[in-house]
Amino acid sequence: MTVEAKKRLAHLFDTTKCFGCGACTVACTATNSPDLMLYEDPGWHSLATNIRRVEFNLRDRPGLLLVQCQHCESAPCVKTCPFGAMYNDAATGLVKLDERRCIGCSYCVAACPYNVRWKHPKTGLPMKCMGKGCEQLLAVGQLPACVQACPVGARAFGDLNDPGTEISRRVRNGRTVRLLEAKGTKPNYFVVV
Amino acid sequence: MKSGQGLELTRREFVTAGAAVAASAGLGLGAGWPTQAQVKALEDAGYEKKPVTCFVCGAGCGLYAMHPKGATPGERNVLIVPNHDHPQRGYCGRGASAMWYWNHPLRLKKPLKRAGERGEGKFTEIEWGQALDEIAARLKTVVEKHGEKGVALTSHDLTSIAQFFGYALGTPNIVNHAATCQTAGTISRRWIFAPPYDTNFRVDPDYENARYVLFIGRTLQASMGAQSRLAQAKSRGARAVYVDPRMPEAAMADGEWVPIVPGTDTAFALALAQVILADKSYDAEFLAKYTTLPLLITADGMPVTQAQIRPKGDATLYAVWDGKRSAMAFVGAKRDEEGKAIDYFGDLDAEPALDYTGQVKLLDGTVVPVSTAFNALVARCAEYTPAAAAELTGVPAATITRIAREFASLKGVCDDSWYNARNGNDFDACRMMVILNALVGNIDKPGGLCFTGSAGVGSLVSLQGKTGEVKNALGKSWTITETKRIDTVTYPESNGTFDAVYTAMLEGKPYPVRALFTVGTTLFYRDANTERVKKALKTLDLLVVQDILPQEVCDYADYVLPASYFLERPEVAGVKWTLQTAIQTSEPVLRAPAGCQGRDDAWMLMEVLRRAYPDRAERAGWLPEYADYEKYRSQAAPVIEQARLSAALKRAAEKDPDAPEKIRKALHTQGYAIVAKKKYRNTLWTKPLETASGRMEVYALRGLLNEKLRAKTDPLPKFTPIRAYRVPMGPNEFYLVSGKNPANGSGTAVFGWPGKFVGDRSVWIHPADAERLRVADGQMIEIEGLDNGVKGQARAKVTQRVRPGVLFTYGFSAGYRGRLGADPRFAFMSEGVNTHWFATGYAEPVIGNMANNVSVRVSAA
Amino acid sequence: MMSFSDIQSQVDVARWGWDIAIFLWLVGISGMSTFAYYWVRRAPLAYAALITVLLGLAVVFSHLSRWWNLPRAVFYATLDFSFNWGSWMMLGILLLSIQAVICLVLAADHLRLGERFPALLKWPLVPTLLAWVPRLARSSALLVVFAGFGLLVTAYSGFLITQAVGVPLWNTALIPILWVVSAGTAVLALLEIFHLKGWIDERASHIVTRLAVASDGIKLAMLFTFLYVGLSASSAGARAGAATLVYGSLAPLLWIGVVLLGALVPVAVSLYSLKFGERRGLVFFAALLALGGGLLLRASVLLAGKFDPLLL
Question: B241, B481, B582, B844: which could form a disulfide with B575 (CB 3.0–4.6 Å)?
Fold first, then answer.
């Protein structure tokens, strides 16, 4: 089920620029979950952050892959949510959560092929990118915290429907892949390799 | 107000405030690095923005602290973000974690007095008054018995504060962390460029315009400003090469990693030079005009001066062979009454030959053979063919040749080092790193190794070594008698070998040191040979530790004094790692958290002084009313910062009378002010350096012209095998290399909760070695120092990011053994090993550069 | 920090562990009970169907990390009719609600509430409702529908996890069918227990025993098929999950719990009973094992669920 959106907001992550400083990962926690500063997520054994850090070895070249919600156009979490709490935002295409309708069944957590959701220990919400903090940043015309944090421009974010944006340019000109495309999720997270 | 969800405005307030902006601003605002406009949007939405200079490591990158207007700033609502347009913008995982250290569960809150044995970590809380009185009394006792010089101070990045107190007291012994950090690089720059271009940030590659950057041992895990500019260059096609026993994080970002045997960097660099010299791809004109390579030297390596050739000749003019006139010429620098070089001097239109061998007749009639220093360099490099170097370094000859040719043809830049993993033979490696740039003439050019400017921000305190005159930022001056820093007795060329102070503690040589103040520095992560450190600290009559977090050294202290955190105090400083000459400001954002009595280090020290020696405090401008901390904060601290800023403003006003106003405004609105743009081909090209010759001393005269150093030093770099530790031989013996990472790896960052996840306390091992030792990824391994048998345990990480035969573990990260900071939540800090446990404490003679790499034996646990 | 080869278990993140296993088990029993009710129209079976569906609902409700938000969720979903009928979770809520009503009717038929509590008849609508009970509960046609519905409920408990596409091990049609056969076996075991208690007659028991053997046989065949397909699946997460079951950390649970105790022992006892006659204690014990085997099967499959690694 694809959703037509006026904007098509997407993330870009460049493995050829990332050097693993962790600024984005920590900034995400500081911006979106400052109530969980000293929390350790038992699932990922990680900070209360929306970004997962995966080391990989591509043709004997070690590298880093950072993953977060892919804001899929055909999102399994949207398909599986019983009360429609998960939805693609009509204006931006971002996958969002309406807290009022969430009963904490974790169906979306199990349904996400990217394993980028984690349960908030107090609210029981299935957390993911974008958190409240970044939504507020977007609302005032700012880029999400992880993109702002990166000192080397390894991240981009913007409207793919607008060919003039930086992300459109980088997707056009760079060698990008999307993750687990065969699952049919139509993710909006482009990885430069 | 809904609590605990990031930026704390209610949705309605936010939407109302932000709607207008959002409508016009839109998203995806532009170039990859967001601009000030975006921060402004946040301000329009009700946020206050304060510029801060990050102090989680020594880089000092530019950040903003944002928090909602009218609300009390705290963990839940202060957001630390990069200051994107800052000439040295942040940030990394360390800076991003800045709010994690402020109200850290383990943050030192009250003055502590030792209640058990040194090392037990038992303390009782006492009041500031009592602490300072007792320390002052004990200080007096030490001074009475051993003199002021029996009191030492040490710091990492607060050395000037330690000096502010030390010089007021009358001790010269403020010896910092440099030896296991940047001594090798600093002294190499001192020998080649002379002060002020010995300081690591006064010489820096022009990353932004670089075409090809060679990093030998440097991993660029700081500063983020440098990483940012390098990334920009790379997006335009620049290449980065990392020569290192382990693959640094930076190499994952499209960098070439060249694995090298530890301690052989000099051989590698000499081989690059050999190829460039053999190919004749060096910049002959540059070398002839601006370096000491054309200088004529005699068989003993000494340069020939005009005084030796002509009666009433100038001993500071050096002989060269003028190829144009086929005659001898003399070159040097003209100096003023104070000895400062003001202009090039001598036969300025000469065309010195690089390759000349001949004879000169001295005044007494003797004829001596001479050759150019260039020929000496060629001879020195000759044995380091790529094939020979390949044997030593493990880098294939073809790779060495290729890199040398790429470097020469692209006019690459070799980073001149900051903190590198050290093997005790690094002074010459660092010299070669600088010399490579000279060979291709890439000094102070776009994309080359450049000199940075100083904005003239006044220092807190300065000491004139010859006269003993001290001046400080409170506008006072006085004289002290003891000016020779104790480590320079053993290591005359060092900029800080604290190991000499341990010797003074343990052996009383050259004289006893009985009192030590540590100011924001973690002795156990930075000083080699941990057992020796512990023994030494136990001998002290007085040990005072000032810090924000319970570093391991606290356990040994008589008094632990809680310090203020950078977000709580103002500071003005020059921006360090940028080619633009700039000033930055850091404004206080927060008060100390509830229950925390952390205070400025300067205040604590000066209050001790005032109680011990009121007259000395007075002569330093420290008034009795500053005993009231709030008075100090509101009166003395701003005065000091303003005085330091005024020095810079005065200098700027000389060129533009409106500059001070513009600078103040810029500092307040954007946190930085660019005082001067980088002018290339300036220093060295248009005016001489402070070296003996005025030139860039690829062939160094500094050692030669000093009788005490002549026999012990070499004007040219040479490869010396490792002496700092036993070289591993057996199948289970390894080099254990130490390094830093950009997410963690600083004394403060060790304690950060994020460090549990973005830090790494494992020991890296190559898959071939792991297989041979039957070690699986994630398995615990036993590590034993080859030199001292000290044991430790760590989790193995099997990875190709390290050479076979080499292990790697991050320094300033693992193996915390402190008792004061022992907390089950932070037990992760104790995982892994600290390489200094296994270190011998070897220091390079004369230079005082020490090793932080070691050698170990490994077995599956 | 995870490495590329770290294949993460869903139970660490989504926490669909033993409580969900219990839910699936109870709901499966309820569904197959109403299925079996077409043939064995006895009170104990009706009560079992009702108790298990209610318990199941209670268990799954307690699993919700935001159970207290259910009324608000229903309210907002009703407001703009955003119930997601494409979600097996939502369908499940509907199906289980209907199943609960069906079981209530079937149970009420046996409870004869009107006779036992005449006071109830004074309440409005109660007499009418109670009058309908026997009409619904004893109509052969409707009982067919109820049986089919019970089958659907059991199948739902399988489809629920197949739709969680993050866990490729579950994304197979084998799961709903395996769940039906396994729940069927569990209900047969239940009937065996009822027979021992004297609540159903000998003849029915004989059929039950034979059916149980066949059912266990089919169940084991399906289980091995599921594992075999999993081991050679195209996705790494499925392979890893199957491997964990077959020879990894979950192997004891699978081989000893599900296969040996949950299937082979009950089959052996059934064959023995058929040949040599019933030994009450043994049969009872074996029936409990068979009943428990259904729970252990579901727990195994849930705990073995793993996410796919991310591939570049």
Answer: B582
